[in-house]
Design goal:
Layout: H1 6-19, H2 28-45, E1 47-52, H3 57-62, E2 66-68, H4 70-79, E3 84-88, H5 91-100, E4 105-107, H6 123-132, E5 138-141, H7 146-151, E6 154-156, H8 161-167, E7 172-176, H9 179-186, E8 192-196, H10 208-217, E9 222-225, H11 231-236, E10 239-240, H12 243-253, E11 257-261, H13 264-274, E12 279-281, H14 295-304, H15 313-329, E13 345-347, H16 349-353
Parallel strand pairs: 1-2, 1-3, 3-4, 5-6, 5-7, 7-8, 8-13, 9-10, 9-11, 11-12
The structure holds iron/sulfur cluster.
Iron/sulfur cluster (SF4) binds next to loops.
Amino acid sequence: MKGYTPEVAIATEPLFEKIKHLIPAVEWPIIAPLIYKINELKVEKNAVILAHNYQTPDIYHCVADFVGDSLQLAIQAQETEADIIVQAGVYFMAETSKLLSPEKTILIPSLEAGCSLAASINGENVRQLKRKYPGVPVVTYVNTSAEVKAEADICCTSANAIAVVEGLGVERVIMLPDEFLSKNVANLTDVEIIAWRGRCEVHEKFTANELREYRVTSPGVSILAHPECSPEVLEEADFAGSTSSLIRYVNDNRPDKVMMVTECSMSDNVSAEIGPEVEFIRPCNLCPHMKAITLENIAESLELLRYEVTIPEEISVRARRSVQEMINLGVEGRDFEKGEFKDVVIEDEVSLNSMDIPLQKSFS
Ligand code: SF4
C-alpha cells in the first residue's frame, strides 16, 4: 500500500475537506492511504460499497458509493451493475443484498457485524408462531436472518412499516422481531399486532427521562427519534421516523439545535453534509456490530474477496419473495406521529414453549 504520498494527498484532499471537522487532522495521513487504496480496488474489481447511515464518516463519506437506510441499500443492491458488492453494514443487510442480487458476489468485511434484533429470533420460532396463530400473516422487519424472512409473508423497514401492515388489509398481523417498533406501529393503526420480544441494543437504551433532561440542558433542541426506541421515547420526541426520514427532517427544517435519538454516527454523517449551521447534540450510543466494519477490513475484504455471503437456495427463494413483496409496495412510507398507546401481545420463546401448540406442518 502507498503511504501518504503527494499523489495520495492530492487525490484524497476533497474527501478530507468533507469530514475535517469530524476527524483530527493528525489522523488523516494514516487513513488517507487506506481510502486511496479502497477506491483503487473498487475500480480494479468492479465493486461498489453500500454503506448504512450508521457507518463512521470515513467510510460513509470517503469510500461508499451508495449510502442510506436498509431499504434504500436493498434497492441499490438490486440496481447496481457492479460484479461485487461490499456491504458496509451488518450481516442481515448483506444477506438482503444477496437475496436481491443472487448473481453478484456479496462481501461482508467482518463476521462480527451481527445485530441484536436479528439474533433474537430464528426460523423455528416463526414456525411456532404460525402454528399458534394459524392464518395470521407474518410481517418481518428486514433486521432478521434470511431464514426468518423465508417464513414471513412480507418484510418491512422502519420507513414503510405502517404502510406494509395496513396494506395487508387484515385485522391482525404477527410483526417480528422488534417489540418497540411493533408497539409504535400498533399505536398508529387499528390492525391488531402480535409482537416478538426482540430489541435493538442501541435504541432500547434511550429513555424519556433522558430526553427531558436534554431539553433542560439544551433549550430549544429539536428531538428526533427512531421508531426502534420505546413508545415513551417517541412520545417525548418532536418527530419520529426512519433514518432516512430523520435526515429529511433536518434538511427540510434546519433547526438551530437537533438531537437524533439513534446510533451515534448518524449525527456525524448528517452534520458533515449540512455543515455548522445546525448544532448537533449527540447522545452517543454506538452499535458495536456496525462498528465492526472498518476501513482496514473493507480493504482486506476487497483484496481477498472475503467474507462471501451465501444463502441456501431453498431459503433464498422464499426469503427473496418476502423482500420483493415489500419493494413492490414502493419506498413511500409514513412517519410516526403521536399515537394512542395500545396493548400489544408480546410473544417470546418462553410463552411459545409454555403453550401446547399443535404440531402440524405449516406452509409459508
Ligand atoms: S443499531 Fe440496533 S438494529 Fe441496527 S444493527 Fe445495531 S443492534 Fe441491530
